[in-house]
Amino acid sequence: MLQVKNISxxxxxxxxxxxxxxxxxxxxxxxxxxxxxxxGKTTLLRCLLGISxxxxxxxxxxxxEIASVPPAELSRTIAYVPQATDTVFxxxxxxxxxxxxxxxxxxxxVPSRSDVAVAKEALRELGIAHLADxxxxxxxxxxxxxxxxxxxxxxxxxxLVMDEPTSxxxxxxxxxxxKVISQLAGQGYSILMTSHFPNxxxxxxxxxxxxxxxxxxxxxxxxxxxxENSLSNLYGxxxxxxxxxxxxxxxxxxxxxxx
Length: 259
Hints:
- With 259 residues, the protein is α/β, with parallel strands linked by helices.
- The protein has helices at residues 41-48, 71-75, 93-98, 113-125, 141-154, 171-186, 198-204, 222-225, 228-235; strands spanning 2-11, 15-25, 30-34, 56-61, 64-65, 78-81, 159-163, 190-195, 207-212, 215-220, 239-244, 251-256.
- The chain has a six-stranded mixed sheet, sandwiched between helices. The chain has a four-stranded antiparallel sheet with strand order 2-1-4-5, covered by helices on one side.
- The radius of gyration is 19 Å and the shape is globular.
């Protein structure tokens, strides 16, 4: 689905923010990108979305160099789910979701009935059809995040890139969003998500990428990659990983230590 080889990127006069960075995302993967603030996670996402052009190396999407893929076609392959924020204009939830159809319609065209039907189906799939006529600015944070995921589903891409999809959400909404992500992976989506919560890697992901100073310093299965030593070194804080009994399968939990 996605292959990144030895890329570097930086802004003029600022040096490289990404250096020698490589990763792969295969069909059906749920990949968690962990790293402290300033590690370069957002910069990497911008490169993967074709917004920022890498200086060296290559990014290939379904075997094609990203620079050779027209923006509309790329948007039909990779959909971006940002962190939920407010909007300047009073868009309805349905309007926000219909925007996901942009890569499928002409530049001057308006959404058709079938485009609206696709958007309504995405709302139903995520259990928020009742919010269709509500203003996006007036719904809760969890509902906004589900709306943005519905917009990405409406885009009908095969890969979702999610920037901290549970940021600023309470536990209940975090679990709700994580369940949706798991369901989407079960439907065949490939997912790359950034997170500041190592527990999400244990709960959800089959692959973890650990990023620091613009490089991927470790990659592998969560149980191999997310360890007390790796997290302590990554965040500069003491961390304890414990197992909690949950039926037949123990669950790993990451706990930060103050002392």
